[in-house]
Structure formats: structure tokens, C-alpha cells
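F.,

This is the one I mentioned.
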């Protein structure tokens, strides 16, 4: 790997370091009782991972190279391989960027929601979660992927439960997620076992070669089905999404912001990797799974979850159901099994992180100032917190798909891919889901901006802490900048889609 940002000696170990730094630094973060110091450790650790991710991203973009890193010097398939191409390099950069911005917001959010004596443990658990997600995005070993999935999941259960100080339902939400997550992990590891039993290797690149040579095998197909169910649950694919609304609604605001921008995206990546790389999406079994399972569930999720969002009064819960619908958009692109469709799905993955990052961060600012969650309590926010309300509005309009926002770009490419595939009914589903989104977003924006003078008790305008204003401003601006000048994000999504098929075939 040619160095782009870092010295060669450091760049050579970048794939391992971006996972190991946050994982190792979680220990001192837990031992130091000062929450601010623990926060600083978390910020520096994630920043280091972001720099390393940028190094890897630039290296893969320079010549389309695939970076192979043998942990401990043990060459695959005997050792664990970290295998990074343009697909997971883009995901690692997204993880680092959103993780860093979320941590800027964490300072005031955690101080308000997490008990003083638990803050260092909270940041330690966050670092473990971040390391686990980074590991999932980096590894080329199937069992190592399972281990990292569980590392991130267990830490996530903990940081959701720590929201009990503000709402005891955080404990119930965490337990529900734990049960569902354990079921998903069980399905995944059973699937890994079936494939290992048949191929004799855990290295995903070697598995791809062995599966291609088999030309169809029932045990391998059963393994794929188990993996699809297990990761579908982690990705909140409809109807396996039941854990997500409560988790987003009752977790600490910082946790919801971070999870909304990362967790389901990493699970979506795993489905791509197995569908297009370990397996070939154009083999009969996988192709049928895309057409008859993934695509119908994606469209059902887009329509049903959007409709459920209409009837929510808790705004965080509303946008949680919206996230389930957005997962449907991503899965629809995946299910098309075309280069353009997958690129559109990846584009929506990136853009959705910007949309929901801005929305949930703004909701966190509203909660920090007024402790509000219900739509009727949003009356007058446009007068009391005009800048934050404007940033929220940008994210909401982007979610709907208004022109000159990233949401419009995503939906444009999804519609184009659907038309190219002759899927007019998918175009109809995208448009119907978007119209439904207009209605639930309209309810909130009317409450914020169209409240008659004197009908609000919000008082004088509130100043938002700089730690919230800066990352929120960055995300809101990104929604507009990349909605007007979309070429960089589209280019990344196209490169990621091309890289996704180095073990499969994209027409």
C-alpha cells in the first residue's frame, strides 16, 4: 500500500491499527474516573482511526488496489486476513467521519443523560462498539467477522441501557435488542458453520473460490440463507426490525445519532459482501434470494415502515421507523443485482448517514434545551432555536428527497436503476414511500415553523453549545453541498459497487 497521508511504516499497519487503537484505548477510558478525560481519549482514538481510514481510502482510490493484511504475519487461510477494497474503505471512512462528529456532540449530550460516575464506562463501551464495527468492515475472515459483530453488539446493548437515567424504558429497549441480536448472531454463526463445513476455510476470498468451483451445493445455500436472516436482523430489514424503534427512541441522544449513521450500514455491507463476493449474485440461488426475498421485503419495508411513521407522536420513534424504510431503499438497490442498482444503494447508505446524523443531532439539541420528544411540544422551536431548527429542516427535506439535497440524489439514482431494470413497480414504491414521508415530515415542520405568536412557552431564544452547533452545521451543510455537487459521493458509490464484485460478476 503506497502511503498517501502517513509514513510508510505506519501506513503498512493501518488496517490493524484502525481497529486496535479504539479497542486498546477503551481500557484506560474505563479506568480513568474523569468523564471529560475519557471523552478526550475517545475523541483522539476515533480521530486516529479516521486518519488511518483516510489513508486506506486514498490508497484504494489511487489504483483500485485490494489491501491484504495478514494479522501477526500469518498468511491466509491459516491466519486472519484483513482485506480492504474500495467498498469497505468507503465504509471505514464513513464510520470514522460520523463517529468523530457524533463524539463532538457527545460532550453536552452525555453530561445531561449519563450519571457522572458512569461516563468513563460509557465512553469505554462506545470505543469497544466503534472498534467492533470497524473490525466488521475490515476483516476478510468469516468467524472473525462474527466476533467483531458480537463485540459491537454487546457494547451497543450497554450504551443503550445507560440511558435509563432519563427513561427507564431504555433498559427494556436494550434487553429487547439483546434478545433479537442474539437470535441474529446465532443464525449468522450457524450459516458460517455450514459454509466452513463445506469449503474447509474461514477466509472469505478462499470461500468464494471454493463455492464457485462447486457449481451449486445445498449446504452452502442453507448457510447463505442463515447468514441472510441473521444479518437482515442486524440491518433492521423488514420485518426483522422490531428492535430498532425502541432502541432509537429511548437510547441516549448521542447513541441514537451514532447508531443511526453506522450500525445498519455495517450490516448492509456484510450482506453485500456475502451476496456479491463470497457468493455470486448471478448464481441461481442467490439471484432468486435477491428477486423473491430481498426485493419484496425491501419494498414492504419502504411502504409499511413509512406508514407506521405517520402514526407516531414521539419524534425519535417516528424517525426510527423512517430508518427502517430507508434500509428498504438500500436493500432495493442491492436486490436489483446490477452495477447501477448497487451503486444507488451504496449512495443512499452514505447519504442516509448525513440525513439522519443531522436529524438526530438536532433532536438531541432540542431535548437538551427543552426535554421534548413529542410533536406537539415542537411548537415554537423555529422562534426559540432558529439555527438548529433550520439544520433540522435541511435534514428533513433531504429525507423526503427535495431537489438540491442528498436525498434527492439517492432517489434519482435508485429510480434510474429501477427503470433500467424494467422495474416500474419499484419506481412506484419509491414515489409512494416518498409521498408518505412528505406527510410525516410536514407535521413536524408545521409545529416548528407555523406556530402562531403567543401559542408557545419556549421563551427567549436558546443558544446551542458549540460542541453541538459545529457538527450539526457540518452535517446540514453536507446535505446541501453534496446535493448540488454530487460527483464526489457518486464516484465513491460507483467505485464501491465495482469493488463489491471482485468475487462475483456485475454486468
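My design for it:
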Amino acid at each position: 500500500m503506497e502511503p498517501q497521508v502517513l509514513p510508510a511504516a505506519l501506513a503498512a499497519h493501518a488496517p490493524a491499527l484502525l481497529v486496535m487503537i479504539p479497542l486498546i484505548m477503551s481500557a484506560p477510558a474505563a479506568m480513568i474516573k474523569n468523564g471529560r478525560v475519557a471523552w478526550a481519549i475517545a475523541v483522539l482514538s476515533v480521530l486516529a482511526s479516521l486518519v488511518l481510514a483516510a489513508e486506506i481510502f486514498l490508497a484504494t482510490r489511487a489504483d483500485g488496489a485490494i489491501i491484504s493484511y495478514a494479522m501477526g504475519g500469518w498468511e491466509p487461510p491459516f491466519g486472519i486476513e484483513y482485506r480492504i477494497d474500495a467498498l469497505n474503505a468507503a465504509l471505514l471512512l464513513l464510520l470514522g467521519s460520523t463517529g468523530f462528529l457524533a463524539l463532538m456532540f457527545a460532550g453536552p449530550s452525555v453530561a445531561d443523560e449519563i450519571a457522572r460516575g458512569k461516563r468513563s464506562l460509557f465512553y469505554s463501551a462506545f470505543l469497544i462498539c466503534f472498534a467492533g464495527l470497524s473490525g466488521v468492515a475490515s476483516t476478510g475472515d468469516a468467524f472473525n467477522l462474527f466476533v467483531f459483530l458480537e463485540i459491537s453488539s454487546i457494547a451497543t446493548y450497554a450504551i443503550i441501557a445507560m440511558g435509563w437515567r432519563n427513561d427507564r424504558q431504555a433498559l427494556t429497549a436494550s434487553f429487547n435488542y439483546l434478545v433479537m441480536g442474539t437470535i441474529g448472531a446465532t443464525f449468522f454463526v450457524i450459516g458460517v458453520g455450514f459454509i466452513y463445513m463445506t469449503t474447509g476455510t474461514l477466509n472469505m476470498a478462499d470461500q468464494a473460490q471454493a463455492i464457485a468451483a462447486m457449481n451449486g451445493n445445498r449446504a452452502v445455500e442453507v448457510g447463505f440463507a442463515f447468514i441472510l436472516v441473521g444479518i437482515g436482523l442486524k440491518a433492521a430489514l423488514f420485518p426483522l426490525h422490531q428492535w430498532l424503534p425502541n432502541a432509537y427512541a429511548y437510547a441516549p441522544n448521542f447513541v441514537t445519532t451514532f447508531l443511526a449513521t453506522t450500525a445498519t450500514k455495517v450490516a448492509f455491507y456484510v450482506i453485500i459482501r456475502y451476496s456479491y463476493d463470497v457468493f455470486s449474485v448471478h448464481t441461481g440461488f442467490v439471484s432468486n434470494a435477491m428477486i423473491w426475498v430481498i426485493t419484496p421485503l425491501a419494498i414492504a419495508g419502504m411502504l409499511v415502515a413509512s406508514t407506521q411513521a405517520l402514526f407516531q407522536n414521539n419524534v425519535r420513534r417516528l424517525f426510527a421507523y423512517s430508518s427502517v424504510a430507508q434500509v428498504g431503499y438500500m436493500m432495493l438497490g442491492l436486490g436489483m443485482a446490477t452495477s447501477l442498482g448497487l451503486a444507488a444503494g451504496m449512495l443512499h447508505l452514505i447519504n442516509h448517514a448525513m440525513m439522519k446524523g443531522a436529524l438526530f443531532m438536532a433532536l438531541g439539541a432540542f431535548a437538551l434545551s427543552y426535554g421534548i420528544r413529542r410533536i406537539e411540544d415542537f411548537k415554537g422551536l423555529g422562534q426559540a432555536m432558529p439555527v438548529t431548527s433550520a439544520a433540522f429542516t435541511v435534514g428533513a427535506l433531504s429525507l423526503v428527497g427535495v431537489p438540491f439535497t442528498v436525498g434527492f440524489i439517492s432517489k434519482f439514482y435508485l429510480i434510474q436503476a429501477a427503470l433500467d431494470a424494467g422495474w416500474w413497480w419499484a419506481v412506484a414504491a419509491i414515489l409512494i414511500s416518498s409521498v408518505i414521508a412528505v406527510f410525516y415530515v410536514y407535521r413536524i415542520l408545521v409545529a416548528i415553523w407555523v406556530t402562531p405568536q403567543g401559542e408557545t412557552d419556549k421563551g427567549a431564544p436558546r443558544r446551542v453549545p458549540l460542541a453541538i452547533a459545529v457538527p450539526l452545521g457540518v452535517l446540514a451543510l453536507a446535505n446541501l453541498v453534496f446535493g448540488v455537487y454530487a460527483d464526489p459521493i457518486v464516484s465513491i458509490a460507483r467505485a464501491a459497487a465495482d469493488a463489491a464484485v471482485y468475487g462475483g460478476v456485475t454486468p
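The chain has a mean pLDDT of 87.

Talk soon.
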